[in-house]
Design goal:
The chain has a domain of 313 residues: Immunoglobulin-like, CATH 2.60.40. The protein is 9% helix and 31% strand. The radius of gyration is 26 Å and the shape is globular. The protein binds copper (II) ion. The site of copper (II) ion has 6 residues, from loops. This is Copper resistance protein A.
């Protein structure tokens, strides 16, 4: 199956969307059975593909899926037709770690589906998993029988079968799709995708760059490949679109662009998503767009489980700006979990004893954990160091849900290629003080106030406090 797909990838390498890295393939379903179905597009690898301009149907400004892509469609008798294939996939989380997930059309998450408000949408869903599945179109107003809850709205799609979903995309906004069948297992295995319904009027809420990604989490033991599907809260890999830092591409912008970032949360916990340097507004929620007069400025917005948020900002400050989940455990990779706290513990004696048995042994962090970002100790096969990634000034000491918004004066419109590290203007980088350091001036040293009083007045009071 894989080899026939690879052949088709090469064979189709000259076709339209294929120039962007999208391949079409016929696999286990016979060609006769597929004749009436739209071709199956797959993508090989976790590259961020450039926005795919619509070649049919109504015009829209396409999104950029972080380390992902958008699914091609065909128009047939006024319907916009897509073909999703649920199947086992291999996803690289970051160089050095590949995982065995379930997803759609060769990747987890599946491809982004982009339609226009008012489009009549028909989605063929072929099940190549070893068990039944369905797809729920999270957030969409649609006929009840198209909502995708197995048993409640439809019979489940058995392995080898293809089902058809048909509905009108009734309102513009940000949506997701995921199974509503054996949900705990299938979502823990990575089955999910993004959906954007663009407004009928292409100028409504128009931005210069429109990024999107899903938050997902996995529990994969170092050295293994398949997520532990029963884990409820104690995950060890926290991802943007099933990629972890330093495997996540930067969000590249031109200075003064209006930028939108759409985020959907399909993990088991909330994520306070934080942008450095510039303030943003939450412009869209699960229920649609927020009127401009009702938005408020933020630098962190909490995204709860099952929620979608669209944040927007003017990229007025050039630089390399960190963009990450503010739960510090969520910017760590697998090797950072379950380590004992060693701060203040003198481990020299025990280290020497263990080194006699295990030559590469080192214990973690008697002065904190920062040294873990610098050294690369031998790891089990197929896992990632707890924190890693190098910037122009040294180790970045991050993992998981972390990437960089790169704002550049000279980035061309529509150019998403990585411009490298920011060249800071002379005299604008924090620097080491090399002059003399005076003795700190202590307040109150000449007063008659006893020291014990200082402890009593630490908190400011609204009325006169005791030391006055
Ligand atoms: Cu988080």
């Amino acid at each position: 199956m894989v080899s026939s797909r690879r052949r088709d990838f090469i064979k189709n390498a000259a076709k339209g969307a294929v120039g962007l890295g999208v391949a079409f393939a016929a696999t286990s379903v016979s060609r006769v059975a597929l004749a009436a179905l739209p071709e199956i597009a797959t993508v090989n690898g976790p590259k961020t593909l450039p926005p795919a301009l619509p070649d049919s149907g109504r015009p829209f400004h396409p999104v950029v899926t972080l380390n992902g892509w958008s699914l091609p469609w065909r128009i047939k008798n006024g319907w916009k037709e897509f073909h999703l294939v649920a199947e086992p996939v291999i996803r690289e989380f970051a160089p050095g770690m590949k995982t065995h997930l379930w997803g759609y059309n060769g990747q987890s998450p599946g491809p982004t589906i982009e339609v226009v408000e008012g489009d009549k949408v028909r989605i063929f869903v072929t099940n190549r998993l070893p068990e039944h599945t369905t797809i729920h179109w999270h957030g969409q107003p649609l006929p009840n029988g198209m909502d995708g809850v197995g048993g409640l709205n439809q019979p489940q799609i058995k392995p080898g079968k293809t089902f058809v979903y048909e509905f009108e995309a009734m309102r513009s906004g940000t949506f997701m799709y995921h199974p509503h069948a054996d949900e705990m297992v299938q979502m823990a295995m990575g089955m999910m995708g993004f959906w954007v319904t663009h407004p009928k009027d292409p100028d409504f809420m128009k931005v210069d760059r429109d990024f999107c990604f899903l938050l997902s989490s996995y529990d994969i033991d170092p050295g293994s490949y398949t997520p532990k599907i029963a884990t409820m809260t104690d995950f060890n890999l926290w991802s943007f679109n099933s990629r972890v830092f330093p495997g996540i591409d930067p969000l590249v912008c031109r200075q003064n662009d209006r930028v939108r970032i759409r985020v959907g949360n399909l993990t088991m916990t909330n994520h306070p998503i934080h942008l450095h340097g510039m303030e943003f507004v939450v412009a869209g929620t699960d229920g649609g767009w927020i009127r401009p007069e009702a938005r408020w400025p933020e630098v962190t917005t909490d995204i709860a489980v099952g929620q979608m948020r669209a944040i927007e900002f003017d990229a007025y400050l050039p630089g390399d700006w960190a963009f990450h989940c503010h739960k510090s455990h969520h910017t760590m990779n697998a090797m950072g979990h379950d380590v004992p706290t060693m701060i203040g513990v003198d481990t020299k004696d025990i280290n020497n004893k263990i080194k006699n048995l295990i030559p590469d042994y080192m214990s973690m962090g008697e002065n904190g954990m920062a040294s873990m970002g610098e050294m690369q100790m031998p790891l089990p096969k197929n896992t990632l160091p707890m924190m890693t990634g190098n910037g122009q000034f040294g180790p970045i000491e991050m993992g998981g849900m972390f990437t960089v918004v790169k704002v550049r004066e000279n980035q061309k419109p529509g150019d998403y290629s990585d411009p490298g590290w920011y060249q800071n203007p002379k005299g604008t980088v924090a620097y080491e003080w090399t002059g003399s350091v005076d003795k700190p001036h202590r307040a109150h040293t000449d007063t008659k106030m006893p020291n014990s009083m200082e402890l009593k007045v630490r908190k400011p009071h609204s009325h006169k406090h005791k030391c006055e």
